[in-house]
């Protein structure tokens, strides 16, 4: 019985220092669009990226998960920008030792032309 109580207290303590955080951002486009610019909608797309960190010192995965996720979403449709963009950023933290950062970007891919000239990525 004593071991069970100790195990339950240890579980509560571990869960108490484990956390998750989520942030969602919305933006009209990934690049400024003026009245002189034109674009063709290529359709809905999404992209993601994951980074894992141990002690905040050793990282595996993308060093810039937000940029990687946006680039993946754009590349999935062969475009060069996104409009109607939502970005979700999640962090799972386990006792400050181990963190997982995930980013998911969704939007409409476009082929963007600035004043009639194709814009390269």
State the order of secondary-structure elements, H for helix, E for strand. Answer: HEEEHEEE
Largest sheet: 6 strands, antiparallel
CATH topology: Translation Initiation Factor IF3
CATH class: Alpha Beta
The overall strand count is: 6
Uncertain runs are none
Fold and architecture overview:
- The model has no long low-confidence stretch (mean pLDDT 83).
- The chain has a single domain, classed as 2-Layer Sandwich (Translation Initiation Factor IF3), CATH 3.30.110.
- Strands 1, 2, 3, 4, 5 and 6 form a six-stranded antiparallel β-sheet that branches.
- It is of the alpha+beta class.
- The relative contact order is 0.27.
- 23% of the residues lie in helices and 55% in strands.
- It contains two helices and six strands, in the order αβββαβββ.
- It has helices at 2-16, 65-77; strands at 18-29, 38-54, 58-61, 81-94, 98-114, 117-118.
- The radius of gyration is 20 Å and the shape is elongated.
- The longest helix has 15 residues, at 2-16.
């Amino acid at each position: 019985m004593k071991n069970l109580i100790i195990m339950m207290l240890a579980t509560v303590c571990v869960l108490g220092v484990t956390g998750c955080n989520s942030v969602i951002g919305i933006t009209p486009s990934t690049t400024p669009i003026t009245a002189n610019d034109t674009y063709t909608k290529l359709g809905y797309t999404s992209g993601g990226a994951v980074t894992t960190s141990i002690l905040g010192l050793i990282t595996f995965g993308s060093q810039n998960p937000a940029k990687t996720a946006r680039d993946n979403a754009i590349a999935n449709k062969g475009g060069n920008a996104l409009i109607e963009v939502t970005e979700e950023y999640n962090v799972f933290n386990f006792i400050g030792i181990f963190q997982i950062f995930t980013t998911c970007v969704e939007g409409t891919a476009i082929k963007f032309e600035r004043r009639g000239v194709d814009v390269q990525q």
